[in-house]
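To assess whether the prediction recovers the assembly geometry, we first specified each molecular entity separately, as shown.
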Amino acid sequence: MVELIIFYVLAIVISVFSIMAVSSKRLIRSATYLLFVLLATAGLYLLLDYEYLFAVQTAVYAGGIMVLFIFAILLTHKPGDRVPNEPKRQRILSIILSVAGFAFCAHIIFHNINRVYQLVPANEINVKQLGMTLMGTEKFEYLLPFETISILLLACMVGAIMIARKRS
Amino acid sequence: MTHYSQPLEFTGLTRWFDSALRSVMPDFWAIFIELVIVGIALLATYAVIAMILIYVERKITAFFQARIGPNRVGKYGIFQTVADVLKILIKEIIHVNKVDKFLFYAAPFFIIVASMLTFGAIPFGKGLQAVDFNIGVFYVTAVSSLGIIGVLLAGWSSNNKYSMIGAMRSGAQFVSYELSGGFALMTIVVLTGTMQLSGMVETQRYCWNLFNGHIASFVAFIIYLISGHAETNRGPFDLPEAESELTAGYHTEYSGLQFGFFYLAEYLNMFVIAAIAATVFLGGWMPIQIKGWDAFNQIMWYIPSYVWFFGKTGVLIFISLWVRWSFPRLRIDQLLNLEWKYLLPINLVNILLMVILVLSGLTLTQIF
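The predicted structure of the complete assembly is given in tokenized form:
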């Protein structure tokens, strides 16, 4: 009962602020609305008793990525200016695209949610289990993807430094 | 483990209150009432601690500068902050014309909510912890990082150059030092094997983490104090609000209670950093105990746990004030150099050292 009420509150916050994030005319306000969406999503994880993902969502998205977003926006020319509307044809095209994307995701989620529910153990997943799975080399463990992504991130960093450094 | 008598703890009272509530009403309402009471209690403690801290800071600062400090309102000026709070409550909030209204008014709430969320997870004493997440330490670092968004938004929406520069400096500083603070806490997570704050306190029953992991712990402790100090924009790291250059930094345009929010959050963030350091490194609310010395332990337990907690936190706050009034302000390049060229590499090596210490059984509890 209580969980249902909290869920509806969070769901309303997520949907309202998502729409405001894309419809707002000012870039920096969009970023703030997006932050509210991310925080409410973190709230959903908390509602599921998945505290680890809650903290990751808050630290990485709200604390990390959003700060970088805001920094990037602040460094652009005039962040407070109203962004002009896109031409009509482009708007219709993007509406169609987003509806299609939504339908695709919704279809996948709807058909897989029951299976996930059965696969994932009902009790809370603690950090130790996560770490062991992430660093393991057995079946259904993720050391190789983890390291691959690390190399990708390293490459990104090297690239960023190459672009940012002064050329003599 | 022997059970010691603890006459002054709140655990009996809270348990009695809980069972009394549950006996007269359904569980839902009992939990609801308890939640409301816990919320009010936290808010009240928040405000009271801020008032005490402001008084203590002004007094200690005065002594460092060979002044007397507040001494007019009440004996030794004890009621000075009460007067200040009343003043700030009835002050007019000046509406600035060309600001981004929504963000300008939302920014103080970001800051206060972030510090309130961290404050809520601190174990103040035995049984005096509102939520005990199993990822406690991670939760604290995650939630405290929300405050910086408030600072950035406040700086930008004020439509003022000084605010903007202050906010950018603060942002750069916070993002850098948050990294070191997180790594320092992670070093201790390696040592204790748990992120839960209550679990951490329990593992430090006979030996504080500061001594348990000797070299590595000590380095982590120093780094945590430095980066915590920098995160709160205080002391030698207060260049976001360097008044000679930037008026008051990111909160230049704020007045009345909105400014009060920034002010309150600054003091409480200092308290939160000290409290986390006390919990993670110095045993939190756990009294000093020595294995086998039952009489000694019993005497230590007679001092209630919240006194231990506030005592340890108070010592750390005093150190923070000491540093604040002893070092000159850093330049921005010195500040960033300190973090990226010294603290971060030391930290990474330190975490490796801690792993080696734990795996080869060289921590104090494993040796003895």
